[in-house]
Amino acid sequence: MQSESKEPFLNTNLKAIIVLIISIFIISLILFRNLFFNSSYLLKSFGELSIEPEIAFKNNKPTFLEFYAEWCEVCKEMAPKVNAIKEEYEKDINFVFLNVDNRKWDNYIRKFDVNGIPQVNLFDREGNLKSTLIGKHDELSIRESINRLERGVESKEEIFNPKFSKIKENKNIEISPRSHG
To answer: Among this protein's residues, is 119 annotated catalytic?
Structure first.
C-alpha cells in the first residue's frame, strides 16, 4: 500500500524537476542571447574590436570599411561571412566597422552617402575608394572584390543588391522647441 502512495509523489517531483530545467533553459537563453545568437554577438564585437578609420587610411594597407547596425537583419545574416573573410585577410587588410547608430561616425556616413546598410567600401593602400557593395552579398562576391583590390585592378565599381536595410533615423535625439532638451 505504501508503494502506491509514493508514485504520485515521484510523479509530482519529476514534473517539478522538468519545469525547473525548462525554466533555467529559457532564462539562460534570455540572459546569454548574445552568446547563443552568434550573428548579433559578431556585429557587436565588430564595432568594439574595429580599428579606427583615421589609422586605417594612413597605415599603407587596403581597407575594408563596413557600415552596419545591430538591428539590421541583413547585417546579422552577413556577419558570419564577413567574419570568415576578416579572419582570412586581417593581416593584409584593415577591417573597419562603423555602427550607423553611433553619432561619432556621422561625418563618414555623409561622406560615403550611406543610406542603406550593410554598405562595404573597399579602399586601396592610398585610401582611394575602389568598390562599394550595398546590401546583401554572398561571401564569393565580397572575396572577388577584395581580390581585385589586392591585385590592383583599376575599377570603380558599385554593386547594389536591393536586399538591404534602410537606415533608421534616431528620433530620440531630435530636439524641438517643445522638447526642453
So the answer is: no
